[in-house]
Amino acid sequence: MGHAIEVAGLSKTFGATTAVQDLSFTVDQGRIVGFLGPNGAGKTTTLRMVLGLVRPTAGTATINGVAYVGLDDPVRTVGAVLDGGALHPGRSGRNHLRSYARASGIGDDRVEELLAMVGLTDAANRRAGGYSLGMRQRLGLATALLGDPKILILDEPANGLDPQGIRWLRDFLRHLANQGCAILVSSHGLAEISQMVDDVVVIDRGRSIAQAPLEQLMASAGGGMRVRGPDVARLAELLRAEGATVSGDGDLVVGDRTGEQIGRLVAEHQLVISELTPVGASLEEVFLRLTQSEAGGPS
């Protein structure tokens, strides 16, 4: 199967300004990909190109192998929330969803299902213009899910959510990914993203500066993976035999293997371990190191 979202050599210039430059990455079914970068890095422009709202200067952006404008049924293929989602302030949350549903041939039962799913049933008859920012985010997410798409593109979905709402969003998106959804999510909330995503794409000034599974990025930047448990001595032997860098005795630190690679070796040899965690830097520290280095600042 192809990639759910594929960006290949994507570039966009606005006059003399280059917003995105030769950007490539993919998002696969069942994965949540964090799309990170400083303000002005080109994140929103990239998302708009994927959704056919901005025409690329060069390169391609496809959804299930097709440009957005060529999708047979876009509502049931991909859902998106940009800028918190557009809503009419005089409409109730329920009527907002119903208007979008009817335009797409979707019944009211789906509207009620989604209101319950995003926790807005009790506020459904209130005017959306009086919603808090967090409530508008939930309504935007419900709108994106009307057609039960298997691909989601979300721009700052945690903006305005309180800690309980952020926890809800994290669990909700993980539930969707476990059902096979491919999710591309941009955010400035690095602490939240670090608990939410499987993979990370970091861009700065329109160019990719890092792309990797989150665990691999954290391990390579922060000092490796820590392993504890009764069978670590045997695991150390196996890892060294494969050429891995291993330090420590009772607690191992493996410098050049991901948690997934170590886990596979543990399973293959039926070893018992009690801990397998990244060592060192937080995602925020990794992000700042990458972007400051790219800008020529301290690294």
CATH superfamily of the largest domain: P-loop containing nucleotide triphosphate hydrolases
What is the strand tally? 13
Cα Rg: 21 Å
Query: What's the CATH class of the largest domain, please?
Result: Alpha Beta
Number of domains: 2
Q: Give the spatial strand order of the biggest sheet.
A: 5-6-7-3-8-9
Domain ABC transporter: 5-230
Keywords: ATP-binding, Nucleotide-binding, Transport
Protein name: ATP-binding cassette domain-containing protein
Family: Belongs to the ABC transporter superfamily.
Describe the structure in brief.
By secondary structure, the protein is an alpha/beta fold. It has two domains: 5-213, Rossmann fold (3-Layer(aba) Sandwich); 224-278, Alpha-Beta Plaits, CATH 3.30.70.
Topology:
Blueprint: E1 5-14, E2 17-27, E3 32-36, H1 43-50, E4 58-63, E5 78-81, H2 93-103, H3 108-117, H4 133-144, E6 151-155, H5 163-178, E7 182-186, H6 190-194, E8 199-204, E9 207-213, H7 214-222, E10 225-228, H8 232-241, E11 246-247, E12 252-254, H9 259-268, E13 275-278, H10 283-295
Parallel strand pairs: 3-7, 3-8, 5-6, 6-7
Antiparallel strand pairs: 1-2, 1-4, 8-9, 10-12, 10-13, 11-12
